[in-house]
Amino acid sequence: MKFGTLLSATAGIALLVVAPAAATSFTAAQVQQASAGLQAMRELNLIVLGNLTSGAEVEGKAFVGGSMSGNSENFGIGSSAHSSQGFAANGRATLTVGGNLASGVHVNDGINGGTGTQISSGLASMADIGGNVTGEIGLNVSPATIRVGGSFNGQNFNPGANRTATYGTTASNLQAQDLPYVVHDASLANPQTGLAATISAQTGALTGDLIQLSAILSSLSANAAFDTSNHNNIFVSYDPGAVATGYAVIDVNASDLMGYSGTLNFNQLSSGGHPLTTIVNVIGSGNYVFALNVNNPALDQNVIWNFGSANSLTTQTEFYGSVLAPTVTLHNANAINGSVVAQTFFQGGEVHLGTFAGGSHFLVTQSGGGTGAAPEPASWALMLLGFGATGSIIRDRNRKERLAAA
Questions:
Q1: Helix (H) or strand (E) holding 254
Q2: Element (H or E) spanning 203, and its range?
Q3: What is the pLDDT of residues 383-404, one digit of tens each?
Q4: Which of 276, 260, 262 is nearest to 374 (CA)?
Q5: What is the per-residue burial (b if ≥16 Cβ within 10 Å, else e) of 100-128?
Q6: Quick one: average pLDDT of 331-350?
Q7: Largest CB tally within 10 Å, which of 26, 76, 93, 129?
Q8: Alpha carbon 54 to its chain's center
């Protein structure tokens, strides 16, 4: 774990104590990138930078940089009436797919639905598909439209005066009464300026922003840890300075965390009456299966699980908190509650709101540059004295790499 262990000479109790870390500096441009990535996680319930194989619904908005295949599913069904969902209103389409759409989908009017990208017709773009639509797509909202960069399969689309489609190349499976509401627009297929090119540029920007966000989160100094002395009752041990810092950071070896199958009693602290924003940096490359039961459904909006170096991740139980895994292949067998970022996603369970709504105190900027490092808690030494411990712990800048290799 990312904690030193001290044995109290008086009580004989093993204590988990935060060790200070050297700051890692980032440029102002890098911090701005990370901030943009964090904002995307506030606006989108699901971000897949590559391909999505869909097998369940997504309550909020979804962005897929690659292609989408799989079963017939619903997008944008979450109700914006529930303030606890953490969703940040935005002008993004409810569903964006950069490549081809081969699955059947239904786009709904939940979570800011109907206020997506405005196009010349004045209708809201509920879905933007850069490639070809070979599956079926339906709009369960009116007025709205979809835009397709390539060919469009109009089967079961049921267009009308307030529910339209525009396509870039060809259209099929349309009835005579559909033709006035399904319009050819060759500009959508332009290789340089069309819809696929636009979404590709957005995907590139999101990729850079989210990878930078993950890097900054990985650099933060730990001020909390998982106490795994009882594998069936894992909980969080916090440094007393965590609340004053404005966020908590936990560093954990992936092979340790994934090896447990008990209950993680995530005893989240509060700051100013709100749950403390918490970053869990899961360290180590490999193919991991998460089977812990997380005993705190309130984590979804205020916790980011940062998988900065894993190869693949499978969540077997219901997962609480946002998943930031921009270079990882993700599989879920049960629901994930929070914003989800993955390189490739094989979706076997639903993606639920709420989207990340925690603070951004960890994105500290300074004149002439920025830092992604948390300040060393002023109360660190006092904590050691308070427990009657002696000595000190020094962690060098390469501790994370050694931990990952352990």
A1: helix 254-257
A2: helix 195-219
A3: 333 333 323 322 333 444 444 4
A4: 276
A5: bbbbbbbbbbbbbbbbbbeeeeebbbbbb
A6: 96
A7: 129
A8: 17
